[in-house]
Amino acid sequence: MKARHKRDDNGRLIGGALTVFMSRINKTDGCWYWTGRERTKGYGGFTISNKECLAHRVSYEHFVGPIATGLFVCHRCDTPGCVNPAHLFLGTNSDNINDMYAKGRYPLQRLRDMPRDEKKRFVTCA
After folding, report:
1. What is the DSSP string of the chain?
2. Which of 24, 32, 50, 107 is most buried by its number of CB atoms within 10 A?
3. pTM surpassing 0.90?
4. Domains by residue range for the chain, with CATH
């Protein structure tokens, strides 16, 4: 029978869930890299009470506190597989998009900032 990981009413992992969760983390001086199941775009996955959860959200809830409805858990380090609570912060969708722009991670932003001759490779149809 598959172990069912559980958490309390405040989102903290209980029972063996915390041991299992922590065993799937490779801690460094900076990021804590998720080594468990990987979901799309490099984000980690962890099952709690038969529900698939994003590992960085589980980490935030366990170590920091509840996540209000509609908020994102964003990465200061821009590493999707990082679950270090010190690298995570809450924000709205707008906050997340503004953070992406501020850090130059928006693909069209990089295209816009390219020199004109280099940009032609991307926008010219053959």
Report:
1. -----EE-TTS-EETTHHHHHHHTEEE-SS-EEE-S-B-GGG-BEEEETTEEEEHHHHHHHHHT----TT-EEEESS--TTB--GGGEEEE-HHHHHHHHHHTT--HHHHHHTS-HHHHHHHH---
2. 32
3. no
4. 2-120 (3.90.75.20)
